[in-house]
């Protein structure tokens, strides 16, 4: 009997991201600011080690830049066999709206410790929430990424988020996130392979070759 093939991945969003989603006006406390990388991540590392799991950790580049202790923890996990992938540089919820120059800066592999994979922070365009835009695919190709893992077809998550967003609206608070179209929900939960990574000169990743 063969075992089912699964992959385990974690988005390492800082607590500050949740303040933005829930429209909290005060920022996280000094302790909470680094809690994900310094407190939650080592616990995850222990859990993964206990079960022999090699996970993919989607990291926010700016958080690593700001936190030497967090960087060390991530580097130790990379040495232990976990993949470090990109969750953008500053976790903008409107990533796909930023335009080519800013998108390219957000996913620049030099602004993080990732090498191959990308899971963009959620955008709000009808075809881009936890999805991928043609422009973003092209830029990922140009930057040598091997795969994209944006699609998040989780109906319970979508419904929970819709309820939270509706509650915030009723309370007159504006969330930093956006609820997109549910069109992505029927899609398969698997990464999107990109054309074979290759260094490019002047954008040599024709969109016709992109999935
Ligand atoms: Zn995130």
What does it look like?
- The protein is mainly alpha-helical.
- It has a single domain (9-196), classed as Glycoside hydrolase/deacetylase (TIM Barrel, Alpha-Beta Barrel).
- The protein has eight helices and six strands; from the N terminus they run βαααβααβαβαβαβ.
- A three-stranded parallel beta sheet has the order 1-2-3. Strands 4-5-6 form a three-stranded mixed beta sheet, with no helix packed on it.
- Strand 4, helix 7 and strand 5 form a beta-alpha-beta unit.
- The site of zinc ion (ZN) has 6 residues, from loops.
- Zinc ion is lined by residues 11, 13, 17, 87, 91, 121.
List the helices and strands and how they pair.
Elements: E1 9-11, H1 15-21, H2 30-33, H3 35-51, E2 56-59, H4 61-66, H5 68-79, E3 83-86, H6 100-106, E4 117-118, H7 134-142, E5 147-148, H8 155-170, E6 192-193
Parallel strand pairs: 1-2, 2-3, 4-5
Antiparallel strand pairs: 5-6
Bound molecules: zinc ion.
Zinc ion binds next to loops.
Q: Provide the succession of SSEs.
A: EHHHEHHEHEHEHE
Query: Which stretches of 5+ consecutive residues score pLDDT under 50?
Result: 123-129, 197-211
| Terminal residue distance | 33 Å
**CATH domain topology:** TIM Barrel
Radius of gyration equals 17 Å
User: Which ligands appear in the coordinates?
Assistant: zinc ion
Number of strands: 6
Query: SS-based structural class?
Result: mainly alpha
Major sheet details? 3 strands, parallel
Second-tier CATH architecture? Alpha-Beta Barrel
Estimate percent helicity: 25-40%
Total separate domains: 1
Q: Report mean pLDDT, rounded to a whole number.
A: 79
Main-sheet strand order equals: 1-2-3
- Please report which band the strand proportion falls in: under 5%, 5-15%, 15-25%, 25-35%, 35-45% or over 45%: 5-15%
CATH superfamily: Glycoside hydrolase/deacetylase
